[in-house]
Amino acid sequence: MNETAPALASVIVLKIQDFTRRTVAEQARYKSQLEVLVTEAIRTLPAAGRIVLDTPDGIAIVALGGPRQALELAQRSQAAAAEVPLRIGINHGPLRPASDPRRGSGVIGDGVTAAATVAGVATPGRLLASRAFRDALAAVAPDSATALGPAGTYTDASVRTHELYTPDPNAALARRRHLVTVGVASAAAILGLGVGIRVIRHITARPLLPAVIVFEITPVGEVLVDGVAKGKSPPLARLEVSPGRHTIEVRNSPYPPLVVDVNLQSEESITVRHSFTKPKPRSKDAGDYVRDLRRRLGI
Fold first, then answer.
1. What is the CA radius of gyration of the chain?
2. Would you report the helix, strand and coil content of the chain in percent, each value rounded to 5?
3. Is 193 a residue whose pLDDT tops 50?
4. Tens of pLDDT along 95-124?
5. 13 burial class (0-12, 13-18, 19+ CB within 10 angstroms)?
6. d(CA 41, CA 73)
7. 278 closest CA partner among 262, 293, 256, 263
8. Cβ neighbours of residue 196 under 8 Å, at least 6 residues apart?
9. What's the pLDDT tens digit per position in 245-271?
10. Residue 177: pLDDT band with limits 50, 70, 90
11. Are strands 269-275 and 211-218 parallel, antiparallel or unpaired?
12. Distance (Å, rounded) from C-alpha 23 to C-alpha 154?
């Protein structure tokens, strides 16, 4: 990576959920498990094709081989994280090496900060990708990009909107259904339309159970879902909604409202976490993150 000019790269941020709230023993245990997990996940990558960074609450990995390699690495980490409450975010954006006489070498740029923001929105066990990452993936691996379905939008404290995507477990199933439907249509021409319709109904029928939204709001907020008031949180902590797209809004005047657009699967559970405090200047947020990152990591 050029020492002065920013370069585009894919970044995977692996965050341990609620790391700062855990005991020192828990922090050490989860950090150790995460290091083992990452060591195994990057084993297939050449040393020249990756940069591993230690962060205050997890690990960040710069995948220099491209977005497809980054997605595969993130999915390997997700599959191996059974015992670690891991939140995974991926972004593709500009990075630039930076060094500090006291803290050593590090990496700065929107590629890292946006990946950290996306990871902060993810729930444990779920992988979220930014729109920039999906676009970069579509340019080199269109089939892989189509497997990332919309997961809503998120507006951060700096009033910056992030379009989110996640691996869609139904994408491959949808392609298989398409192939089966084509086969059934061909068979129907020979065997009769009635048989074809019965087969299609058998393949596509599936019960839809409600999705769950968990709220962690401080100090308090008025919750609206699709414009309908649902009560104040707290005490409201859990809400069931139908699968599909929803707009979640949390208000606490005079602060700006939190607005999150989601696309929920049947039985999926997400957490809406927000604290109504005055937003910090955008430059200060990025600077604080970079200083923490450079203080804790080494390349």
1. 22
2. 40, 35, 25
3. no
4. 888 776 665 667 788 888 899 999 988 888
5. buried
6. 6
7. 256
8. 184, 185, 187, 188
9. 999 999 998 899 999 998 988 888 899
10. low
11. parallel
12. 30
- E-assigned strands of the chain? 7-16, 50-55, 58-63, 86-100, 104-108, 127-130, 148-155, 161-167, 211-218, 221-225, 228-233, 238-241, 244-252, 255-264, 269-275
pLDDT at 188 over 80: no
Count CA atoms closer than 13 A to 45's CA, side-chain side.
25
Q: Please count the residues of the chain.
A: 299
Which of 235, 240, 258, 238 is CA-nearest to residue 248?
258
Separation between Cα atoms, residue 202 and residue 214, nearest integer Å: 34
Q: What is the largest CA-CA distance in the chain?
A: 77
Q: Tokens representing 214?
A: 């968990």
Q: What is the pLDDT of residue 279?
A: 55
* Helices 131-140 and 67-80, packing angle to 10 deg: 120
pTM of model > 0.90: no
Residue 93 DSSP class: E
